[in-house]
Amino acid sequence: MISKNSNSSRAATMMGAIATMFAGAFAQAAAPMAKFQAPGFYRMALGDFEVTVLNDGTVDLPVDKQLRQPAAKTIQALDKSFVKAPLETSVNAFLINTGGKLVLIDTGAASLFGPTLGKLAANLQAAGYRPEQVDEIYITHMHPDHVGGLMAGGQIVFPNAAVHAGKADADFWLNQVNMDKASADDKFVFQGAVASVSPYIKAGRFQPIEANGELMPGIKAYLTAGHTPGHVTYTVESKGQRLLLLGDLMHVAAVQFDDPSVTIAYDSDSPAAMAARQQAFADAAKGGYLIGAAHLQFPAIGHLRENGKGYQYVPVNYTQPR
Prior knowledge:
By secondary structure, the chain is an alpha+beta fold. It folds into 2 domains: 1-30; 41-315, 4-Layer Sandwich (Metallo-beta-lactamase, Chain A). The protein is built from 10 helices and 16 strands. The protein has a 7-stranded mixed beta sheet. The chain has a 7-stranded mixed beta sheet with strand order 10-11-12-13-14-15-16.
C-alpha cells in the first residue's frame, strides 16, 4: 500500500522536474541583444510636397566643452532634458519631393566623421529612392558632416544632381591658401570640403548661391553667415505650409532653445551665428511654421513656441503618409 505522504512526495518531485525542464527550455530560448535600429527615415506631407528626413547616424559630442558657457551650466541643462555629455547627437538631411523634382538638403558625413555616421545612402534607399534620382542638392555649409555624402570611394554619389552652396563657403573652404594657414585640427574640414565638392565643380555641376532668393518653386535660400562664412538656410513651402531648415544655426536643443545666445566653438563668427539663430527662432515662433535642423534629435522636425526669453520645442506628431 502506498501512503498519502509518498504520493505527495512523488508529485512534488515530478513537478520539480517539469519546472526544471521548462526553465531550461525558456533559458535556451533567450535571444542576444539586437543592438540596431529600424532604417532612419521619417516621411511627412508639406502641402503638395513630401518631406523625408534621412538620418546619417549619431555622433557623441563633448558639448560641455564646446558650448561657450560654463560647463556646469551646460551639464545642468542636459540633466534637465535627461541626457548627458558627451551628447549623442543626430546628423540629419532632408529630402524634398516637389512632385517634379527631388531635392536633397545636405548629404551627411559618409566616411569623413567616424564610424557612427555614414548611413544616409542606405537610408535613402530604404526610403524608396536611388541616388541617381536626386535632381538638386542644396548644401547648408561645407563642414564634413554636411558634404561628405557627396562622394564615396572617390566616386560621385549623385550622378545627375546639381550641387548648390553658399559662394562665401566655397571661396573659403576650397581655398588652398586658407587650408595651408589652418591649424592641424582644422585642416580636415578643408580637405573634406575639397574632396567632396571639387568633383562636382570639375563636372560643371556646382552652382554657388550669392544672394537670397528662390532656387525653384517652393524652395528659397537665405544667407545666414556666422556658423561658417557662407552658411545658408532654406525654406520649403507648399500650400501655405512652411518648413525652415536651419542647418547648423543650432546644435544642442537642451541648451539653445532655452537660451539662443549660447554659441558653440564650431562657429566662425559667434556674434553673427547668434544673431542668425535668434532671428530664425523668432520668425518661426511668430509665423507658426515648422523647423528642421541637422542636429535636432531625429526625426528633427517640430514647432517653436515662445517661452520667456527662450523657446519651447514641440516635435511633430507622428503621422502616416496619406
